[in-house]
């Protein structure tokens, strides 16, 4: 039996508090953006696709900020690997949260994979790590949008997410996918 817990739009998301590479702490409950908090769960230092994704995200931080969106990237990596991520990937502005427990990852609906040695980036995968996901969480702590993946490939593009945020804010578009129990709709 799996302990994977799918999150439901318009419902509260799990608590999330982690340390940040470079110092400080991220606490989702303390975030007070005008519109959303963007949580980008990445696989870790070993993932070359994550490197490209987070570099792209950092290049768009000003655009997210203009739209009232706070941003953080998170992984199950430990402090040493998170600090190395900041340095070797050349990330100077993006908040990098580390130490997300595997239990917390499962409560966020993330898939967990087993390490298989060195990646094409020449970095060993951890014994266990979470696969990627992107969430937009409203200031009230409820889920607005989620994209959860079992593989590192074919991730949503941040330019598309920015365009979507423009549309949903302008049109007060409701979160979709909120029906969790089909028996209650009959």
UniProtKB/TrEMBL annotation:
Annotated ranges, domain Thioredoxin: 7-170
Gene3D superfamilies on file: Glutaredoxin (3.40.30.10)
Chain ranges passing through the membrane: none
Domain of life: Bacteria
InterPro entries named among the record's database cross-references: AhpC/TSA, Thioredoxin-like_sf, Thioredoxin_domain
Signal peptide start-end: none
Alphabetized GO MF terms: antioxidant activity; oxidoreductase activity
Protein name (database record): Peroxiredoxin
Organism in which the protein naturally occurs: Afipia massiliensis
Organism ancestry: Bacteria, Pseudomonadati, Pseudomonadota, Alphaproteobacteria, Hyphomicrobiales
């Amino acid at each position: 039996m799996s302990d994977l817990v799918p999150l439901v739009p318009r419902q509260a998301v799990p608590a999330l508090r982690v340390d940040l590479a470079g110092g400080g702490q991220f606490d989702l409950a303390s975030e007070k953006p005008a519109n959303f908090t963007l949580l980008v769960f990445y696989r870790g230092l070993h993932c070359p696709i994550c490197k490209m994704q987070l570099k792209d995200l950092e290049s768009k931080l000003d655009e997210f900020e203009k739209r009232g969106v706070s941003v953080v990237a998170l992984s199950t990596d430990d402090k040493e690997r998170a600090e190395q991520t900041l340095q070797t990937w050349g990330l100077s502005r993006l908040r990098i949260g580390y130490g997300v427990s595997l239990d917390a990852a499962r409560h966020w609906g993330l898939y967990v994979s087993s390490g298989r040695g060195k990646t094409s980036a020449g970095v060993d995968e951890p014994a266990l790590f979470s696969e990627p996901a992107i969430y937009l969480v409203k200031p009230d702590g409820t889920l607005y949008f989620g994209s959860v993946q079992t593989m590192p490939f074919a991730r949503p593009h941040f330019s598309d997410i920015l365009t979507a945020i423009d549309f949903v804010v302008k049109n007060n578009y409701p979160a979709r996918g909120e029906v969790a129990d089909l028996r209650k709709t009959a």
